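Bit of a strange request maybe. I'm writing a small parser for structure token strings and I need a real example to test against, not something I typed by hand. Could someone generate the tokens for this chain?
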Amino acid sequence: MTVQESGMERMDHTDWFLGMLVFLLAALVHEVGSGNTPMLIVVPLLAILYGLPVYFGLYTLSILTTDA
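Reply from user aminoacidic:
Good idea to test on real output. This should exercise your parser:
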């Protein structure tokens, strides 16, 4: 079964670039932000910082195992 048959589309280089850009901007905001940053900003920021690398890793793993 190929990736296209399974319904999964491959991420092109633009998706990876935009994902890394979002990750780096979130890291910058997290480092620059003070301890008084509202939770409304902190929770999505931490979800991006910790969730995006996990998503990229799981996606890459699924592509590698599907193509094998």
